[in-house]
Amino acid sequence: MSRLLCLIMLSLGLVQSATAEESEHDRISEYLTQQFGVAKVKAGQISDAVQSAAAKYSLPPALLLAIISIESRFKEKAKGPRGATGLMQVVPAAHRGLLKDIKDLTEPAANIEAGSAILHGYMQSAGGDLNLALKSYGGSLAYAQKVSMRTATFAPVVARQDDAQPAAAQSALCDARSVDNCPAPANGARNFFIPSGSGTAGPASIGLSATARASAP
């Protein structure tokens, strides 16, 4: 009987987890459709790509959504200065090594993966300082502050219904200050901080330069 009870509890836990993930996917998709006019199918693709990249590179989904909203307003075909391309306005000339296997940088999953990898690489170079990483990504501290404010807007969209919105916003960005001052996220997500002595950088830092763009948008 006890074994059966354990199996039931385990099944309930898995269902609960899947429901939470599905709910987050739906909230992000609906928000992108309502606020930015993104088609439902495309909104779902962006939501999936953001959640996947966020988990892979230990970056809050709200942060990635904020960057995309500033860089391209969720237009995957967007073009900018120096050839900046796609949702996260990745600059091919600055990141050739990282992008060598990407055929279409306007494809949402590929672009968000690349942009997240670039930001992760800047985080490593900055010893975990999100402010400096965003400065490298966007070209100025003003850009970092803009991302900070926009992330606070997206945090309640990403957070589960039972999460307190102020806490979610604080965990997602920590006011864009050095991330080692951030409290531990309530939902168990890992902090931004990457110790500077963590060894050689992974693939995310291949070909990364400190000049992602000449100026912030």
SSE layout:
Elements: H1 2-36, H2 40-57, H3 61-71, H4 96-99, H5 108-125, H6 130-138, H7 141-158, H8 165-173
Helix pairs in contact: 1-2, 2-5, 3-7, 5-6, 6-7, 7-8
Helix proportion: 55-70%
Mean pLDDT: 74
Topology-level CATH name:
Lysozyme
The H-and-E topology, N to C, reads as: HHHHHHHH
Shape: globular
Structural classification: mainly alpha
The total of helices stands at: 8
- Percentage beta strand: under 5%
Q: Architecture, CATH level 2?
A: Orthogonal Bundle
* Domains, number: 1
Specify Rg, calculated over alpha carbons. 18 Å
CATH level-1 class: Mainly Alpha
Descriptive account of the structure:
The protein has 217 residues and is mainly α. It has one domain (22-205): Orthogonal Bundle (Lysozyme), CATH 1.10.530. Helices cover 56% and strands 0% of the residues. The chain has 8 helices and no strands. Helix 1 crosses helix 2 and helix 7 (141-158) runs antiparallel to helix 8. The longest helix is centred in the N-terminal third of the chain and has 35 residues, at 2-36. The protein is globular. Mean pLDDT is 74; it is low at 4-20 and 164-217.
